[in-house]
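dumping this here so i dont lose it
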């Protein structure tokens, strides 16, 4: 059984404001879910390549993510014994006139998929999005899996994506009841562009 002292030490080492701990099955250890850091890029990309292959860049959802930065505080990784074992990101979008988030990609390393880490990341991401005041989340994924977290295809019937999509896999979750009631038409990306963000940071450094 994990002592409170060891839990406190783990939280302190990861940054108490941005991390949470989740005990796994007996003897599997503790997963730390925290926000992404600049040094996580290599491990995250390797994990995504292993999970989805090079074809991940051809997905319709990628059109809404390409060249953008994730929503602040909603790019999360799962760490187990100092190793990145999971990742999930959420992105700002306009869902047919309704502000929302796009979730994805969600990935867990192959050898850790039976531990429930994907579910931990989903629950953490949804909780953080709700706490920030976001009202809806969209994604493209397997309905039987995401149904467990409240996602359903009915909420996206009046929405379209900028590319081919299996309608049965185009799902949404309302964090605020009725958030997508009047949503109609195409989904567009609204998050900050990566180049714009880099320019702002560069300007800030020069001003300092």
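and the seq i came up w/
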């Amino acid at each position: 059984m994990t002592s409170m002292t060891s839990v406190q030490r783990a939280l302190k080492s990861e940054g108490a404001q941005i991390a949470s701990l989740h005990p796994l099955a007996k003897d599997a250890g503790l997963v730390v879910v925290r926000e992404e850091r600049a040094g996580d890029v290599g491990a995250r990309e390797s994990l995504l390549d292993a999970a989805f292959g090079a074809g991940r860049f051809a997905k319709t959802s990628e059109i809404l993510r390409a060249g953008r930065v994730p929503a602040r505080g909603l790019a999360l990784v799962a760490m187990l014994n100092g190793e990145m074992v999971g990742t999930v990101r959420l992105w700002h979008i306009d869902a047919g006139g309704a502000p929302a988030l796009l979730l994805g990609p969600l990935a867990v390393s192959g050898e850790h998929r039976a531990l429930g880490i994907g579910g931990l990341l989903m629950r953490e991401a949804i909780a953080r999005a709700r706490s920030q005041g976001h009202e809806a989340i969209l994604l493209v994924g397997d309905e039987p899996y995401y149904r467990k977290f409240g996602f359903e295809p009915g909420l996206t019937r009046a929405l379209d994506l900028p590319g081919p999509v299996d309608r049965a896999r185009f799902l949404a979750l309302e964090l605020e009841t009725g958030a997508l009631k009047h949503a109609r038409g195409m989904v567009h990306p609204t998050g900050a562009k990566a180049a714009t963000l880099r320019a702002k940071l560069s300007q800030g450094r020069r001003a300092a």
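Residues 1-17, 204-208 have pLDDT under 50 and may be disordered.
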